[in-house]
């Protein structure tokens, strides 16, 4: 059977970032103004006052210290609390296309390839800035790729589900080289007025080049030993934004048209599912947790990752075994585990095993077991 190899990865990080202190300062000004505006209703007990946020809580509850964003100014304006990302004309590349091209070029360069070597582009991420034409086809055009492209969305698991689609294309012979790109602009769909979640997400874009094994040098890249996907319906992470919103005015502008979650429930329910998925996947490949040199886990919450890696290994994982990038990037949805893989793999030796594992809304879990060539 034709095998698939990850031959290169790329990362685009928006230069601007916001630390917890700055984010909280803007949020708390908004809270103070809101409470002043509604002081009479609050005094009459007709309305609950909004509570301030705190940088110490954010770091302790999540492990996040800062996040990169496309636009700082709009998010930090207490009257706006939303990024300002101007619309572009139809003749200009979209923001997601620009991010994708930057990440894809790095992945191609790392693999020693050019766009002429690629036949397919999958843009896999949580939010597309428009339904059509597909962002992936725009990226295909921008890079000059002769082949096919499509968009897909499985929330935080988009990149690993995209990886499985790419591996399938390689194995069944419909493509020789596939780019899987995850341009996540999470700040565009985060409710910066919601104390429970205003700190969770950041923006970034990753790209992965997957190729037929026989095209890749003997010591280059990572063999994909297997992929395993799992979904189970849950209402605990929702985003009800969609094309039918305009058909019922009652819902327009409501908080459920942005990211909304029951974070505690997600933490409790998803962590064991992820550990079981990784363990089941390893044993199906006749491997065990002791064989793993590294776990590149989805980057949503530090405590969650420590719990998952402890369940998988039967002991606490070292930082080397389960690297953390969410302190700097926050949750970048599907890009998170790929950023960890991109930044933390150069020290592995030939034959070392690792697992890339994403998890999130749906619920959805994607596990990809790889071996350094
Ligand atoms: N500042 C100060 N205090 C706060 C704050 C705040 N900002 N927020 C809450 N508190 C208080 C609460 O009021 C509560 O107080 P009390 O105990 O008095 O009631 C206390 O802190 C504890 O609150 P929580 O129980 O909510 O806090 P947790 O310790 O559970 O931490 C987390 C909250 C960090 C959200 C945590 O539950 C978590 O990370 N859970 C996992 C979440 C997760 O993995 N989600 C995946 C989502 S990603 C995904 O799949 C969607 C992708 C789509 C991307 C879309 C882009 C926008």
From TrEMBL:
For this chain, one GO molecular function annotation is: 3-oxoacyl-[acyl-carrier-protein] synthase activity
Indicate yes or no for the key word Transferase. Answer: yes
Keyword Acyltransferase among UniProt keywords: yes
Question: Which keywords has UniProt assigned to this entry?
Answer: Acyltransferase, Transferase
Name the domain of life: Bacteria
| Beta-ketoacyl-[acyl-carrier-protein] synthase III N-terminal domain residues | 150-229
Listed GO biological process terms:
fatty acid biosynthetic process; secondary metabolite biosynthetic process
InterPro entries per the UniProt record, alphabetical: ACP_syn_III_C, ACP_syn_III_N, Thiolase-like
Mind telling me what this protein is named?
A: Beta-ketoacyl-ACP synthase III
Q: Which organism is it from?
A: Marinobacter nanhaiticus D15-8W
